[in-house]
From TrEMBL:
One of its GO terms (molecular function) is porin activity. This is Porin. Keywords: Cell outer membrane, Ion transport, Membrane, Porin, Signal, Transmembrane, Transmembrane beta strand, Transport. It is found in: Cell outer membrane. GO terms for biological process: monoatomic ion transmembrane transport. GO terms for cellular component: cell outer membrane; pore complex. Gene3D superfamilies: Porin. It comes from the Bacteria.
Length: 363
Protein backbone atom coordinates (compact mmCIF):
# COMPACT_ATOMS: atom_id res chain seq x y z
CA UNK A 1 0.00 0.00 0.00
CA UNK A 2 2.87 2.33 0.90
CA UNK A 3 4.66 1.57 -2.40
CA UNK A 4 1.45 2.22 -4.30
CA UNK A 5 1.09 5.58 -2.53
CA UNK A 6 4.66 6.56 -3.39
CA UNK A 7 4.12 5.60 -7.04
CA UNK A 8 0.94 7.71 -7.07
CA UNK A 9 2.82 10.71 -5.66
CA UNK A 10 5.61 10.21 -8.18
CA UNK A 11 3.12 10.03 -11.05
CA UNK A 12 1.40 13.18 -9.88
CA UNK A 13 4.72 14.97 -9.64
CA UNK A 14 5.70 13.87 -13.17
CA UNK A 15 2.31 14.93 -14.51
CA UNK A 16 2.56 18.31 -12.77
CA UNK A 17 6.04 18.82 -14.18
CA UNK A 18 4.79 17.93 -17.65
CA UNK A 19 1.88 20.33 -17.38
CA UNK A 20 4.19 23.08 -16.14
CA UNK A 21 6.44 22.48 -19.14
CA UNK A 22 3.48 22.58 -21.54
CA UNK A 23 2.16 25.74 -19.87
CA UNK A 24 5.55 27.43 -20.15
CA UNK A 25 5.76 26.48 -23.81
CA UNK A 26 2.27 27.85 -24.40
CA UNK A 27 3.13 31.07 -22.63
CA UNK A 28 6.27 31.32 -24.74
CA UNK A 29 4.25 30.83 -27.91
CA UNK A 30 1.74 33.43 -26.74
CA UNK A 31 4.54 35.88 -26.01
CA UNK A 32 5.96 35.43 -29.51
CA UNK A 33 2.52 35.89 -31.02
CA UNK A 34 1.95 39.04 -28.95
CA UNK A 35 5.32 40.46 -30.02
CA UNK A 36 4.50 39.78 -33.67
CA UNK A 37 1.13 41.47 -33.17
CA UNK A 38 2.80 44.50 -31.60
CA UNK A 39 5.15 44.78 -34.56
CA UNK A 40 2.15 45.12 -36.90
CA UNK A 41 0.66 48.20 -35.20
CA UNK A 42 1.87 51.35 -33.52
CA UNK A 43 0.36 54.26 -31.64
CA UNK A 44 1.52 57.39 -29.88
CA UNK A 45 0.37 60.17 -27.63
CA UNK A 46 1.35 63.58 -28.96
CA UNK A 47 0.49 67.21 -28.48
CA UNK A 48 1.72 70.68 -27.68
CA UNK A 49 1.90 72.85 -24.60
CA UNK A 50 1.40 76.36 -25.98
CA UNK A 51 0.85 79.53 -23.97
CA UNK A 52 0.85 83.14 -25.18
CA UNK A 53 0.53 86.29 -23.07
CA UNK A 54 -0.50 89.45 -24.92
CA UNK A 55 -1.56 93.03 -24.44
CA UNK A 56 -3.29 95.41 -26.85
CA UNK A 57 -3.51 99.20 -27.22
CA UNK A 58 -6.60 100.40 -29.14
CA UNK A 59 -7.16 103.69 -30.90
CA UNK A 60 -10.39 105.64 -30.25
CA UNK A 61 -12.31 103.88 -33.03
CA UNK A 62 -11.00 100.55 -31.78
CA UNK A 63 -12.31 101.25 -28.31
CA UNK A 64 -15.74 101.98 -29.79
CA UNK A 65 -15.77 98.81 -31.86
CA UNK A 66 -14.43 96.38 -29.26
CA UNK A 67 -15.65 98.32 -26.19
CA UNK A 68 -12.20 97.97 -24.65
CA UNK A 69 -9.73 100.60 -23.51
CA UNK A 70 -6.84 98.19 -23.20
CA UNK A 71 -6.65 94.44 -23.04
CA UNK A 72 -4.41 91.69 -21.80
CA UNK A 73 -5.06 87.98 -21.79
CA UNK A 74 -3.57 84.51 -22.06
CA UNK A 75 -4.09 82.36 -25.13
CA UNK A 76 -3.83 78.71 -24.11
CA UNK A 77 -3.54 76.67 -27.31
CA UNK A 78 -2.39 73.49 -25.59
CA UNK A 79 -3.87 70.28 -26.96
CA UNK A 80 -3.35 66.54 -26.96
CA UNK A 81 -3.92 63.77 -29.47
CA UNK A 82 -3.68 60.04 -30.06
CA UNK A 83 -2.79 58.42 -33.39
CA UNK A 84 -1.69 55.10 -34.72
CA UNK A 85 -1.56 52.64 -37.57
CA UNK A 86 -2.00 48.91 -38.21
CA UNK A 87 -0.52 46.86 -41.04
CA UNK A 88 -3.31 44.48 -42.00
CA UNK A 89 -2.24 41.02 -43.13
CA UNK A 90 -4.63 41.10 -46.09
CA UNK A 91 -5.10 44.78 -46.75
CA UNK A 92 -3.55 48.27 -46.74
CA UNK A 93 -2.20 50.09 -43.71
CA UNK A 94 -4.99 51.31 -41.42
CA UNK A 95 -4.49 54.78 -39.87
CA UNK A 96 -6.45 56.64 -37.19
CA UNK A 97 -6.27 59.80 -35.10
CA UNK A 98 -8.20 61.55 -32.29
CA UNK A 99 -7.16 65.08 -31.35
CA UNK A 100 -8.52 67.58 -28.85
CA UNK A 101 -9.17 71.26 -29.39
CA UNK A 102 -7.38 74.11 -27.65
CA UNK A 103 -7.79 74.44 -23.91
CA UNK A 104 -8.86 78.07 -24.31
CA UNK A 105 -8.38 81.14 -22.18
CA UNK A 106 -10.60 79.99 -19.30
CA UNK A 107 -10.11 76.24 -19.54
CA UNK A 108 -12.73 75.93 -22.25
CA UNK A 109 -13.16 79.30 -23.93
CA UNK A 110 -15.61 78.28 -26.65
CA UNK A 111 -17.84 75.96 -24.65
CA UNK A 112 -16.73 72.57 -25.90
CA UNK A 113 -13.62 73.63 -27.86
CA UNK A 114 -11.25 71.62 -25.69
CA UNK A 115 -12.93 68.25 -26.01
CA UNK A 116 -11.49 65.28 -27.88
CA UNK A 117 -12.39 65.16 -31.55
CA UNK A 118 -12.54 68.93 -32.15
CA UNK A 119 -9.39 68.89 -34.29
CA UNK A 120 -8.43 66.26 -36.90
CA UNK A 121 -10.15 63.00 -35.95
CA UNK A 122 -10.44 60.30 -38.57
CA UNK A 123 -9.93 56.75 -39.77
CA UNK A 124 -8.32 55.87 -43.08
CA UNK A 125 -5.93 53.84 -45.17
CA UNK A 126 -2.48 54.54 -46.57
CA UNK A 127 -0.38 53.02 -49.35
CA UNK A 128 2.92 53.95 -50.98
CA UNK A 129 1.57 53.70 -54.52
CA UNK A 130 -1.79 55.47 -54.12
CA UNK A 131 -1.43 57.84 -51.17
CA UNK A 132 -3.74 58.32 -48.22
CA UNK A 133 -7.52 58.44 -47.76
CA UNK A 134 -9.17 59.71 -44.58
CA UNK A 135 -12.79 59.78 -43.45
CA UNK A 136 -13.97 61.95 -40.57
CA UNK A 137 -12.95 65.42 -39.40
CA UNK A 138 -9.95 66.84 -41.28
CA UNK A 139 -8.58 70.06 -42.73
CA UNK A 140 -9.88 71.00 -46.16
CA UNK A 141 -7.23 71.18 -48.92
CA UNK A 142 -7.53 74.95 -49.40
CA UNK A 143 -7.59 75.77 -45.70
CA UNK A 144 -4.47 73.72 -45.04
CA UNK A 145 -2.59 76.20 -47.26
CA UNK A 146 -4.36 79.24 -45.83
CA UNK A 147 -3.55 78.15 -42.27
CA UNK A 148 0.11 77.37 -43.02
CA UNK A 149 2.04 79.20 -44.19
CA UNK A 150 -0.48 81.91 -45.13
CA UNK A 151 -1.63 82.94 -41.63
CA UNK A 152 1.67 82.88 -39.74
CA UNK A 153 2.95 84.83 -37.85
CA UNK A 154 -0.28 86.15 -36.38
CA UNK A 155 -2.03 87.02 -39.67
CA UNK A 156 -5.09 84.82 -39.19
CA UNK A 157 -7.56 87.36 -37.85
CA UNK A 158 -7.34 89.14 -41.21
CA UNK A 159 -6.31 86.59 -43.83
CA UNK A 160 -7.87 83.49 -42.29
CA UNK A 161 -11.28 84.52 -40.91
CA UNK A 162 -11.32 88.34 -41.10
CA UNK A 163 -12.98 88.65 -44.52
CA UNK A 164 -16.41 90.26 -44.88
CA UNK A 165 -17.97 88.24 -47.70
CA UNK A 166 -21.32 86.56 -47.03
CA UNK A 167 -21.82 82.82 -46.69
CA UNK A 168 -19.17 80.21 -45.96
CA UNK A 169 -16.35 81.35 -48.23
CA UNK A 170 -14.51 78.14 -47.37
CA UNK A 171 -14.48 75.49 -44.68
CA UNK A 172 -11.54 75.04 -42.34
CA UNK A 173 -11.57 71.78 -40.40
CA UNK A 174 -14.77 70.00 -41.33
CA UNK A 175 -16.56 66.87 -40.12
CA UNK A 176 -18.40 64.47 -42.48
CA UNK A 177 -15.45 64.64 -44.86
CA UNK A 178 -13.73 62.26 -47.26
CA UNK A 179 -10.22 63.36 -48.24
CA UNK A 180 -7.60 61.81 -50.54
CA UNK A 181 -3.95 62.89 -50.60
CA UNK A 182 -1.92 61.57 -53.49
CA UNK A 183 1.69 60.43 -53.33
CA UNK A 184 4.25 62.77 -54.88
CA UNK A 185 4.88 62.17 -58.56
CA UNK A 186 8.05 63.95 -59.69
CA UNK A 187 7.43 66.87 -57.35
CA UNK A 188 3.67 67.05 -58.08
CA UNK A 189 0.89 66.09 -55.65
CA UNK A 190 -2.83 66.72 -55.23
CA UNK A 191 -5.38 66.71 -52.39
CA UNK A 192 -9.09 66.20 -53.08
CA UNK A 193 -11.94 66.31 -50.52
CA UNK A 194 -15.69 66.68 -50.21
CA UNK A 195 -18.26 66.58 -47.44
CA UNK A 196 -21.32 68.02 -45.76
CA UNK A 197 -21.60 71.77 -45.27
CA UNK A 198 -22.39 73.87 -42.21
CA UNK A 199 -26.17 73.85 -42.74
CA UNK A 200 -26.58 70.23 -41.67
CA UNK A 201 -30.38 70.43 -41.77
CA UNK A 202 -30.29 71.19 -45.51
CA UNK A 203 -30.03 68.26 -47.90
CA UNK A 204 -28.10 70.34 -50.46
CA UNK A 205 -25.58 71.77 -47.97
CA UNK A 206 -22.26 70.37 -49.13
CA UNK A 207 -18.80 71.37 -50.22
CA UNK A 208 -15.90 70.09 -52.32
CA UNK A 209 -12.38 71.24 -53.04
CA UNK A 210 -8.90 70.38 -54.22
CA UNK A 211 -5.32 71.64 -54.00
CA UNK A 212 -2.27 71.02 -56.17
CA UNK A 213 1.39 71.37 -55.22
CA UNK A 214 4.46 71.35 -57.47
CA UNK A 215 7.95 71.46 -55.96
CA UNK A 216 10.83 72.81 -58.01
CA UNK A 217 13.87 72.39 -55.79
CA UNK A 218 13.30 74.50 -52.65
CA UNK A 219 10.30 76.33 -54.15
CA UNK A 220 6.72 74.99 -54.14
CA UNK A 221 3.91 76.34 -56.32
CA UNK A 222 0.36 75.96 -55.00
CA UNK A 223 -3.18 76.29 -56.32
CA UNK A 224 -6.50 75.45 -54.64
CA UNK A 225 -10.24 75.72 -55.13
CA UNK A 226 -13.32 75.12 -52.96
CA UNK A 227 -17.10 75.41 -53.49
CA UNK A 228 -19.69 75.61 -50.70
CA UNK A 229 -23.42 75.18 -51.32
CA UNK A 230 -26.35 76.20 -49.13
CA UNK A 231 -29.87 77.46 -49.68
CA UNK A 232 -28.70 81.09 -49.20
CA UNK A 233 -25.32 81.20 -50.95
CA UNK A 234 -23.00 79.41 -53.33
CA UNK A 235 -19.42 80.33 -52.44
CA UNK A 236 -16.40 79.79 -54.67
CA UNK A 237 -12.85 80.43 -53.46
CA UNK A 238 -9.70 80.30 -55.59
CA UNK A 239 -6.12 80.49 -54.34
CA UNK A 240 -2.67 80.68 -55.91
CA UNK A 241 0.51 80.69 -53.88
CA UNK A 242 4.22 80.05 -53.69
CA UNK A 243 6.62 79.30 -50.86
CA UNK A 244 10.30 78.54 -50.59
CA UNK A 245 12.92 77.49 -48.06
CA UNK A 246 16.59 77.76 -48.92
CA UNK A 247 19.73 76.23 -47.42
CA UNK A 248 21.11 79.67 -46.54
CA UNK A 249 18.29 80.13 -44.01
CA UNK A 250 16.03 82.36 -46.09
CA UNK A 251 12.39 81.49 -46.63
CA UNK A 252 9.29 83.18 -48.01
CA UNK A 253 5.61 82.70 -48.90
CA UNK A 254 2.97 84.61 -50.85
CA UNK A 255 -0.69 83.88 -51.62
CA UNK A 256 -3.59 85.54 -53.40
CA UNK A 257 -7.15 84.48 -52.56
CA UNK A 258 -10.29 85.27 -54.58
CA UNK A 259 -13.70 84.75 -52.94
CA UNK A 260 -17.13 84.92 -54.61
CA UNK A 261 -20.63 84.61 -53.12
CA UNK A 262 -23.54 83.95 -55.46
CA UNK A 263 -26.82 84.85 -53.72
CA UNK A 264 -29.59 82.24 -53.87
CA UNK A 265 -32.25 84.42 -52.22
CA UNK A 266 -34.18 86.95 -54.32
CA UNK A 267 -33.26 90.55 -53.56
CA UNK A 268 -29.83 89.66 -52.13
CA UNK A 269 -26.73 91.03 -53.88
CA UNK A 270 -23.84 88.91 -55.12
CA UNK A 271 -20.55 89.63 -53.38
CA UNK A 272 -16.83 89.20 -54.02
CA UNK A 273 -13.65 89.96 -52.12
CA UNK A 274 -9.96 89.32 -52.68
CA UNK A 275 -7.19 88.94 -50.10
CA UNK A 276 -3.45 88.42 -50.07
CA UNK A 277 -0.66 87.52 -47.68
CA UNK A 278 3.12 87.44 -47.80
CA UNK A 279 5.94 86.67 -45.41
CA UNK A 280 9.72 86.53 -45.21
CA UNK A 281 11.84 84.64 -42.68
CA UNK A 282 15.51 84.10 -41.90
CA UNK A 283 16.93 81.26 -39.81
CA UNK A 284 20.35 81.65 -38.24
CA UNK A 285 21.80 79.40 -35.52
CA UNK A 286 18.93 78.82 -33.05
CA UNK A 287 16.97 81.93 -34.04
CA UNK A 288 14.24 82.62 -36.58
CA UNK A 289 13.23 86.12 -37.64
CA UNK A 290 9.92 86.46 -39.46
CA UNK A 291 7.76 89.29 -40.81
CA UNK A 292 4.36 89.00 -42.47
CA UNK A 293 1.66 91.16 -44.01
CA UNK A 294 -1.92 90.30 -44.97
CA UNK A 295 -4.88 92.32 -46.22
CA UNK A 296 -8.47 91.94 -47.36
CA UNK A 297 -9.34 94.22 -50.25
CA UNK A 298 -12.64 96.13 -50.41
CA UNK A 299 -15.76 93.99 -50.50
CA UNK A 300 -17.81 94.36 -53.69
CA UNK A 301 -21.60 94.01 -53.93
CA UNK A 302 -22.95 93.60 -57.43
CA UNK A 303 -19.63 94.91 -58.70
CA UNK A 304 -19.55 98.06 -56.55
CA UNK A 305 -16.97 98.58 -53.80
CA UNK A 306 -18.26 98.92 -50.25
CA UNK A 307 -16.54 101.48 -48.01
CA UNK A 308 -14.86 100.44 -44.77
CA UNK A 309 -14.52 96.76 -45.67
CA UNK A 310 -10.75 96.45 -46.15
CA UNK A 311 -8.56 95.02 -43.35
CA UNK A 312 -4.82 94.68 -42.86
CA UNK A 313 -2.25 93.31 -40.42
CA UNK A 314 1.53 93.57 -40.26
CA UNK A 315 3.44 91.34 -37.86
CA UNK A 316 7.03 90.75 -36.77
CA UNK A 317 8.30 87.83 -34.73
CA UNK A 318 11.56 86.62 -33.20
CA UNK A 319 11.69 82.95 -32.21
CA UNK A 320 14.38 81.09 -30.26
CA UNK A 321 14.71 77.30 -30.34
CA UNK A 322 15.45 76.07 -26.82
CA UNK A 323 15.40 72.55 -28.26
CA UNK A 324 14.22 71.06 -31.58
CA UNK A 325 10.88 70.46 -29.83
CA UNK A 326 10.53 73.72 -27.88
CA UNK A 327 10.54 77.42 -28.71
CA UNK A 328 10.01 80.79 -27.08
CA UNK A 329 9.03 83.85 -29.11
CA UNK A 330 8.04 87.48 -29.00
CA UNK A 331 5.70 89.13 -31.52
CA UNK A 332 4.51 92.64 -32.37
CA UNK A 333 1.43 93.26 -34.57
CA UNK A 334 -0.53 96.17 -35.95
CA UNK A 335 -4.12 95.31 -36.96
CA UNK A 336 -6.52 97.62 -38.80
CA UNK A 337 -10.04 96.21 -38.84
CA UNK A 338 -12.58 97.96 -41.05
CA UNK A 339 -16.28 97.25 -40.52
CA UNK A 340 -18.99 99.04 -42.50
CA UNK A 341 -21.42 98.73 -39.58
CA UNK A 342 -18.96 99.85 -36.87
CA UNK A 343 -19.02 103.19 -35.11
CA UNK A 344 -16.08 105.48 -35.91
CA UNK A 345 -14.42 108.47 -34.31
CA UNK A 346 -13.07 111.16 -36.68
CA UNK A 347 -13.56 108.75 -39.61
CA UNK A 348 -10.84 106.41 -38.32
CA UNK A 349 -10.72 102.68 -38.91
CA UNK A 350 -10.61 100.65 -35.67
CA UNK A 351 -7.05 99.49 -35.03
CA UNK A 352 -4.76 98.23 -32.29
CA UNK A 353 -1.15 97.41 -31.51
CA UNK A 354 -0.48 94.02 -29.95
CA UNK A 355 2.59 92.83 -28.02
CA UNK A 356 2.99 89.21 -26.99
CA UNK A 357 5.38 86.56 -25.74
CA UNK A 358 4.84 82.82 -25.93
CA UNK A 359 6.23 79.37 -25.39
CA UNK A 360 5.50 76.13 -27.22
CA UNK A 361 6.67 72.61 -26.43
CA UNK A 362 5.81 69.74 -28.79
CA UNK A 363 5.81 66.16 -27.55
Amino acid sequence: MENMFKRTLLGAAIAAAAMTSISASAEGADAVAIEKLKESFSYEVYGVIAMQALTRDYNEAGKALWAEDSNWKLNNESRIGFRGSKDFANGPKFIWQIESGYVGGSGNAAGDSGKLGVRDTFVGFEGDSWGKIRIGRVLTPIYEIIDWPGSNPGLGDVYDWGYGIAGAAYQDRQSDTVRWDSPTWGGFSVDVAFGRGDAVAEADSNWGGAAAHYAIGPVTLQAAYERNNSSDWINDTYLVGVQGNFENGLGFFAQYKMMEADAQVAGTADESQNAYTAGLMYNIADYQFKVGYAANEDLERDGKKVAYTDDSVISGQVMYFIDPSAVVYTRVRHVERADEAAKRVDNQNPEFMEYSVGVEYYF
